[in-house]
Write a structure and sequence with these properties.
heterodimer, A: 290 residues, mainly alpha, MetI-like fold, globular, B: 327 residues, 76% helix
């Protein structure tokens, strides 16, 4: 079909808008990356706009030297790996039985879960609950306390339901029980859905900071995000208080923070192609319609 | 009274029959439960988790009606009725924070809510698949970045003395502005960074999925009738997206009072409280930092109840007006 002039014009206009939007989304990353490889003085005087100036690895060297940072990094990796494993296990425990329409009491359990989506106890009772359970300042609180997302249970359940019943029926004829059916039929067939659910949990755990900040006091247990938050708050306080008086300090601090940001988002950027593929899938499977 | 005897006979017959039906039912429930024993076994840890980490805190909500003391514990503390609520409603923060919550949501609804819809519509008009994919990949990326890092970038960019924005302002002869300390800029900064920049690409994917589900025959028919691109968008694409738009709108209203307090506490400071402080940030400060647990719990309960009412009302309204609802 021939495109009219006005069609071409609007296509061009749309392309320009989309390119501008992409630039806005991408620029902060490019800037942070360039600034992390530049000298503090170049960043502070505004010489770094797109490409690094006075290229140096100083910020990365000082990161390597900082113990707390590697400890926090290790903690984040541990919370993400252990937490995701535990979350997936519990999510399967909930999603699989709930996917069986023959299960007595299913509607009740489904309501029991969905209710928590619309009504929560709030910050204080949640905090006091951890206190009563003796979980304050423990790694367990981070791994176990926020293990299940009702949305992901629903998503996985929907996926399980899409697997034809005939597979289960024929396995039952052969004398398989429910656990064997789950292990040998459902789980292998649900790999894409399990990867999606796992990735959503993992990204959430990697990025979470709020409850870790509240529940953990011990410096040796805090994850990367909490440490980063402390550094950023410290820096802006410094700048408020001392202004340009303490420029040298601010200089190294700023590039140091940029380098820390790069190190902390690196794993996410590396798995981003998978993330994108599976998250889009998750959006399609679960549908928000449910 | 001849009728009486057959009736009582019938009665006598019914009662034992009832009993055996009941026993049979119990028996069949037993067999059903036994049949699905593994499924129930799997549910046990799952339900236990919900009881301990979601429902037990709800039991703890009673401290909103109590004079909570750490030593007496949740159940041992004395009841005080609505005293904590009165203290919360009468505090100078209540009205201010309620207004702030409303305003942040209102501007979010005006600017952040339509943004991904517009992006999806624009992407849908792109014929070059490579270009479309690239734009999607780039705009989707910020969704995976933690709010701490976004706040860090925003704080650095807007820093009063050497942030890049102020360096630019100075270069063009302007006066440096301490954005993050000025109440009038808070909402723009928050909605711009945490709602639009972070999530526009992510939410657009949901709408694109909705657009993909529209029957292509509708477009063919419209073209036959001479509808141009704009008219097709208006009369086919948008109505096709309506269910998704309505559901996201209801979900949005359900989290009305929740607003992103986790990201607000990263960006606000005492100087901007007058526009930035919302109910949950107050709960965080007064309750968790200040140790005023019972007023914090009362404020939190107020939040939860109003949110629940809002989502139910929004759902009913949407069902009435568009026949679309969550349940």
């Amino acid at each position: 079909m021939k495109q009219s002039f006005s069609d071409k014009l609007s296509s061009g206009f749309i392309a320009v808008i989309l390119i501008m939007l992409s630039a806005v989304c991408l620029y902060p990353f490019v800037y942070v990356l360039s600034a992390s490889f530049s000298s503090g003085s170049a960043v502070i005087t505004g010489e770094v706009l797109l490409f690094p100036k006075d290229i140096t690895l100083d910020s990365y060297k000082s990161i390597l030297a900082k113990d707390g940072l590697w400890q926090a990094y290790g903690n984040t990796v541990f919370y993400t790996v252990a937490g995701t494993a535990f979350s997936i296990l519990l999510t399967i425990c909930g999603a699989y039985p709930l996917s069986k329409s023959r299960l007595r009491g299913r509607t009740f359990v489904a309501f029991f879960i969905a209710f928590t989506l619309w009504f929560g106890a709030g910050l204080i009772p949640t905090y006091l609950n951890f206190k009563e359970l003796g979980l304050l300042d423990t790694r367990t609180s981070i791994i176990v306390g926020f293990a299940v997302s009702a949305f992901l249970v629903i998503l996985l359940r929907t996926f399980f339901q899409s697997i034809p019943d005939s597979l289960e029926e024929s396995a039952k004829m052969d004398g398989a029980n429910d656990l064997q059916i789950l292990r040998h039929i459902y789980l292998p067939l649900s790999k894409p859905a399990l990867v999606t659910v796992g990735l959503i949990y993992a990204v959430g755990k990697w990025n979470s900071y709020f409850w870790a900040m509240i529940l953990l006091n011990d410096e040796s247990k805090i994850p990367l995000q909490v440490l980063l938050k402390k550094m950023i708050v410290e820096m802006s306080l410094n700048e408020e208080l001392t202004g340009s008086m303490n420029a040298a300090n601010a200089m190294s601090q700023e590039t140091f923070i940029y380098a820390t940001i790069i190190v902390s988002i690196l794993p996410i950027v590396l798995v981003y192609p998978f993330l994108q593929k599976y998250f889009v899938k998750g959006t399609m499977i679960g549908g928000i319609k449910e | 009274m001849q009728l009486n005897s057959p009736l009582s006979e019938v009665k006598e017959k019914i009662v034992p029959a009832n009993r055996s039906v009941l026993a049979g039912k119990l028996q069949s429930i037993k067999t059903i439960v036994w049949r699905d024993k593994y499924l129930y076994l799997m549910l046990i840890p799952f339900i236990l988790w919900y009881l301990i980490f979601a429902y037990k805190p709800m039991y703890g909500l009673q401290i909103a009606f109590k004079d909570y003391s750490l030593f007496k514990g949740i159940s041992g503390s004395p009841w005080v009725g609505f005293e904590n609520f009165e203290r919360f409603f009468q505090s100078e923060y209540f009205i201010r924070n309620l207004v702030n919550t409303f305003m942040i949501n209102f501007w979010g609804l005006i600017f952040a809510f339509p943004a991904p819809i517009i992006l999806a519509l624009l992407l849908n008009e792109v014929k070059n698949m490579m270009f479309k994919k690239t734009v999607q990949t780039i705009t989707y990326l910020p969704h995976f970045i933690s709010v701490v890092i976004i706040a860090g970038i925003v704080t650095n960019f807007l820093a009063p003395t050497n942030g890049i924005v102020n360096i630019f302002i100075e270069k063009f002869g302007g006066e440096k502005i301490n954005f993050l300390a000025m109440p009038e800029f808070f909402r723009t900064i928050y909605i711009g960074s945490m709602q639009i920049w972070k999530d526009v690409g992510y939410s657009a994917i949901i709408y694109l999925a909705a657009i993909a589900g529209i029957n292509p025959a509708l477009y063919e028919a419209a073209k036959m009738d001479g509808a141009n691109r704009w008219k097709q968008v208006w009369h086919i694409t948008l109505p096709g997206m309506l269910p998704t738009i309505m559901i996201l709108l209801i979900l949005n209203l359900g989290s009305f009072l929740e607003v992103g307090y986790e990201s607000i506490i990263l960006l606000y400071q005492p100087a901007t409280y007058e526009t930035a402080d919302v109910i949950n940030t107050y709960v965080y400060r007064a309750g968790l930092q200040g140790g005023n647990y019972e007023v914090g719990a009362a404020a939190g309960l107020f939040n939860s109840v109003v949110s629940l009412i809002l989502v139910v009302v929004a759902n009913q309204l949407s069902k009435k007006m568009t026949n679309i609802g969550l349940w």
